[in-house]
Design goal:
The complex is a heterodimer of chains A (115) and B (114). Chain A has 115 residues and is an all-beta fold. In chain A, the strands form two sheets. In chain A, strands 2, 4, 5, 6, 9, 10 and 11 form a seven-stranded mixed beta sheet that branches. A four-stranded antiparallel beta sheet of chain A has the order 1-3-8-7, with no helix packed on it. Chain A is globular. Chain B has 114 residues and is mainly beta. Chain B is built from no helices and twelve strands. Classes of the chains: A mainly beta (115), B mainly beta (114).
């Protein structure tokens, strides 16, 4: 099986712009979670989608949003980019929602740089 | 609420030496515990997972971890370090249920000296 794929792998934007990142889960997985990784804050949970519904959300401002399509692919969007949004954005997929009992498989991430 | 503490940000060992990476957790419910590894410019790879089936968990690449409830610890060990083990290691905790979330520690960078 192919693993989790994320596109693009690298992205450079300027402050005030918006950005959309894409994640394709492992075939058959219906749950997709997003994380932000920065040197200062470490790995932080953004949100989780299952069957096109947001099941869980972390403590991020409303500028961060996401959605999931019927084929389980997911996108996350960040509007009005700030310098502090520069980070590695990781996507993970699993069969079921909840990040305890079911193992999450991570993609390689999208490196976003905001200038 | 749940949390993970990984003491220290960097561990350096010689090739062939014991690797010990410490993790302490806090959880109000019986936890699921994980160790992930991240190589440069890559995502996270699961090393092992504790699910209460056994307190000693064996993972990939020769790593194992022991769950000690009395110490709220889940330390990662490997008897003999290899150069390819150099990476960043994250301990994480989650509860059960469909609304559980993974909470990660800050991570520990492992260096292996020849």
């Amino acid at each position: 099986k192919a693993g989790v794929t994320q596109t693009p792998r690298y992205l450079i934007k300027t402050r005030g712009q918006q950005v959309t990142l894409s994640c394709s889960p492992i075939s058959g997985h219906r749950s997709v979670s997003w994380y932000q990784q920065t040197p200062g804050q470490g790995l932080q949970f953004l949100f989780e989608y299952f069957s096109e519904t947001q099941r869980n959300k972390g403590n991020f401002p409303g500028r961060f949003s996401g959605r999931q399509f019927s084929n389980s692919r997911s996108e996350m969007n960040v509007s009005t980019l700030e310098l502090g949004d520069s980070a590695l954005y990781l996507c993970a997929s699993s069969n079921y929602p909840g990040q305890g009992s079911d193992t999450q498989y991570f993609g390689p991430g999208t490196r976003l740089t905001v200038l | 609420a749940q949390s993970v503490t990984q003491l220290g940000s960097h561990v350096s060992v010689s090739e062939g030496a014991l690797v010990l990476l410490r993790c302490n957790y806090s959880s109000s419910v019986p936890p699921y515990l994980f160790w992930y590894v991240q190589y440069p410019n890559q995502g996270l790879q699961l090393l092992l997972k504790y699910t209460s089936a056994a307190t000693l968990v064996k993972g990939i690449n020769g790593f194992e971890a022991e769950f000690k409830k009395s110490e709220t610890s889940f330390h990662l060990t490997k008897p003999s370090a290899h150069m390819s083990d150099a990476a960043e290691y994250f301990c994480a905790v989650a509860g059960a249920g469909a609304n559980s979330k993974l909470t990660f520690g800050k991570g520990i960078t492992l260096s292996v000296r020849p």
